[in-house]
């Protein structure tokens, strides 16, 4: 008879009614921090510093120097016999792009048709070996019909 009885109460009320379970949940959720000499509390994150002047002065000196924004993150890479000295790198993207002029100069073969709609790409070159320093990795390069803004340099690659 009682197998089909359901009671709907808020979780917080249920926890308050069972003190041992509430204590168990609290111990699971609260991260106990160990205190070390010098007044620094360590857990996953350093949470507080003491008012000790020597410690505070030492901490300020250890902070890294602020640097200006590099604006564009670029790396040298090689595809076949062509070297690109400043290929733009976008760590947030998951697509590699090249203009038509670079595709024609590489002579990599025919493009595969694609269903992508970024700017109506001409197609995709699959598994092109891209070398960055000593690392060689395969990449799918989407070829866009666009003007090469830097003729002669060949640096309009975007690696993501």
UniProtKB/TrEMBL annotation:
Q: Which residues form a coiled coil?
A: none
Signal sequence interval, chain numbering: none
Q: What is this protein called?
A: Aspartic peptidase DDI1-type domain-containing protein
Organism, scientific name: Mucuna pruriens
């Amino acid at each position: 008879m009682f197998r089909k009885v359901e009671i709907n109460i808020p979780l917080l009320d249920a926890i308050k009614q069972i003190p041992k379970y509430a204590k168990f949940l609290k111990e699971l959720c609260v991260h106990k921090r160990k205190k070390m000499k010098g007044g620094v509390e360590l857990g996953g994150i350093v949470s507080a510093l003491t008012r000790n002047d020597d410690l505070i002065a030492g901490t300020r000196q250890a902070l890294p120097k602020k640097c200006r924004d590099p604006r564009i993150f670029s790396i040298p890479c090689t595809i076949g016999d062509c070297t690109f000295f400043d290929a733009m790198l976008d760590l947030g993207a998951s697509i590699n792009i090249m203009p038509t002029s670079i595709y024609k100069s590489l002579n990599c073969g025919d493009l595969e048709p694609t269903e992508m709609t970024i700017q109506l790409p001409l197609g995709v070159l699959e598994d092109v070996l891209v070398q960055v320093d000593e690392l060689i990795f395969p990449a799918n390069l989407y070829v866009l019909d666009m003007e090469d803004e830097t003729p002669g340099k060949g640096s309009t690659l975007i690696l993501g």
